[in-house]
């Protein structure tokens, strides 16, 4: 007759052989299912119009800040020229004629997410939907207010005479 100790030992060997955890196939199936569900969730969410107008205003603010720093460092004039749905940074060439910049940072850009220029003022004058903002080598900026809008709301980018740049939700939207 087998002793109780040898029976326990045999049972623990069988249990150890069958309790090895999940197989690689099982783990891969679960990961694949999770990836498919996450992909469908991302596709169903889509683009948030409120987020896209905010992103475009913040991008414009960041590019203007960088252009101001470059103007100071290089001692050169920069001009931001805008149209209703796009904008570009320009500099004067040797003859003084404005030329669009083509480098990666200051390349011409199209607004995304159905964002357009809703209103603008430069030096206190209404410039419609196509303002031009001058950034001087001293870091000063022609004062401006540009309102970007889409179905999700309105954001503004403001430049003060001393070169300070601000971006935020248009006050009547709060």
Give an account of the 3D structure.
With 174 residues, this protein is an alpha+beta fold. 36% of the residues lie in helices and 28% in strands. It has helices at 4-18, 24-45, 49-74, and strands at 78-82, 86-92, 98-100, 109-110, 116-122, 125-126, 132-135, 144-150, 153-159, 165-169. Strands 1, 2, 3, 4 and 7 form a five-stranded antiparallel beta sheet that branches. Strands 6-5-8-9-10 form a five-stranded antiparallel beta sheet, with helices on one face. The chain starts with a helix and ends in a 5-residue tail after the last strand. The mean pLDDT is 83.
Number of beta strands: 10
The total number of structural domains is 2
What composes the largest sheet?
Answer: 5 strands, antiparallel
Query: At the fourth CATH level, what is the homologous superfamily of the largest domain?
Result: minor pseudopilin epsh domain
CATH architecture of the largest domain: 3-Layer(bab) Sandwich
Class of secondary structure makeup: alpha+beta
Distance linking N and C termini: 85 Å
Shape: elongated
User: What's the pLDDT, averaged over the residues?
Assistant: 83
Helix content: 25-40%
CATH secondary-structure class of the largest domain: Alpha Beta
Q: What fold name goes in the CATH topology slot of the largest domain?
A: minor pseudopilin epsh fold
- The H-and-E topology, N to C, reads as HHHEEEEEEEEEE
Please tally the helical runs, counting DSSP H or I stretches of 4 or more residues: 3
Given as residue ranges, the uncertain stretches (5+ residues, pLDDT < 50) are none
């Amino acid at each position: 007759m087998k002793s109780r100790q040898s029976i326990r030992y045999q049972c623990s060997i069988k249990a150890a052989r069958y309790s090895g955890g999940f197989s690689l196939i099982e783990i891969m199936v679960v990961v694949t299912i999770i990836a498919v569900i996450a992909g469908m969730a991302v596709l169903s969410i889509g683009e948030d119009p409120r987020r896209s107008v905010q992103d475009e205003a913040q991008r414009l603010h960041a590019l203007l800040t960088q252009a101001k720093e470059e103007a100071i460092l290089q001692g050169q004039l920069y001009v931001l020229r805008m149209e209703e749905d796009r904008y570009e940074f320009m500099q004067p060439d040797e003859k003084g004629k404005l030329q669009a910049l083509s480098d990666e940072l200051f390349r011409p850009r199209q607004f995304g997410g159905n964002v357009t220029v809703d209103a603008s003022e430069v030096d206190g004058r209404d410039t419609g939907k196509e303002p031009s903002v001058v950034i001087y080598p001293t870091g000063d900026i022609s004062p401006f207010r540009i309102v970007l809008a889409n179905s999700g709301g309105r954001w503004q980018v403001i430049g003060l005479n001393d070169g300070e740049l601000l971006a935020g939700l248009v006050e009547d939207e709060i």
